[in-house]
Sequence to fold (330 residues):
Amino acid sequence: MQNRQVILSRYPDGHPRAEDFEVVSIDMPGPGTEEVLCRTRYLSLDPYMRSQIAGRHISGSIAPGDAMRGESVAEVVESNHAAFTPGQLVRGFGGWCEYFTLPGSALSPVNPGLDRPSLELSLLGMTGLTAWAGMIWQAEVKAGDRVLIPAVTGGVGSAAAQFCRLRGAEVIGTAGSEKKCAYAVEALGALACINRHEGDLAGQLDQHFPGGIDVYFDLVGGELLHLASERLALQSRVVLAGLMAEYNDAERAPGPPPGFWIRARATIYGLVVYDFEPRRREFVDTCLPLLREGKLDQREDMTDGIESAPEAFCRLMHGGNFGKVVVAFP
Ligand SMILES: NC(=O)c1ccc[n+]([C@@H]2O[C@H](COP(=O)([O-])OP(=O)(O)OC[C@H]3O[C@@H](n4cnc5c(N)ncnc54)[C@H](OP(=O)(O)O)[C@@H]3O)[C@@H](O)[C@H]2O)c1
Fold:
């Protein structure tokens, strides 16, 4: 049996390109004591991987020659751990490769009854948990709140928009195309969506938030963080979670003046999803029934095969994805 893996071949210069990565053949791993051999079925691609490459992520760095890391849904092939049996679907950090071994203690069974196992990596997975932690546990979004969510059709944004809608809040999203904006309104229940590439962003925010922004879920940093901070309502909440506008830059950008936050008596949260891992069960138990009842939607931007992973990742870092980015393995 052949096993392949994606490695970083060189540091990207700004936006990553497919040539910065290489698909290489590696030995087939054998499971040791208490370990499980798994075959990747779905691989999650996420912006934090760009930060790992830049040496700025809390989970560690990736240098040229290193294997790309990431979370996947995989099928158990061989198990030396009592909790797992061949054929079972599991979730774990297997990396960008076709086969991997992990200790059984590092694997979780995939929730039963999902019509798409990849949902374990998206709405019911890390991106969904991030959205729930930010909007429900931190900002405590409630009926009547006016919420601004950038990248609203992406993994975190689309989940956040739906969670806020279910709480009775009004969501205004931003997205990178008219097609994405139409989806945000029609499928995600956003009240409106601003195409971030068209027209005057500040003016459009003024139009949609005449009374100010109650909750801003910052997934991008940059200009929008400044504009949103300038327009906060009294007692507003800002959840700082991501820096899409800055990940590809070598230098860190300065933030908005703190005076914007003081004036609004705002509460600012920093969000790291790993902190909420102990509460994942609580989140899944709430959202799995909603998903089964068709009350939640998850669009996935899915490509096929390990060879497609570098290009799919580069597209994500350019904002070309439409939905949560996942690679399916045949
Ligand atoms: N703090 C945490 O624990 C945590 C956990 C998970 C994710 N995150 C963060 O959440 C954010 C979203 O992650 P995701 O996986 O759901 O990705 P995603 O939203 O599916 O994809 C990223 C989106 O960001 C937008 N974007 C790209 N470049 C941009 C730019 N220069 N300025 C503004 N927007 C840009 C694009 O959407 P449009 O073109 O449609 O605007 C793109 O589709 C990322 O910043 C990520 O790092 C944080």
Q: What stands out?
A: Residues 46-48, 127, 130, 150-151, 153-157, 174-176, 180, 196, 219-220, 222, 241-245, 271-273, 316, 319, 321, 324 surround NAP (CB under 6 Å).
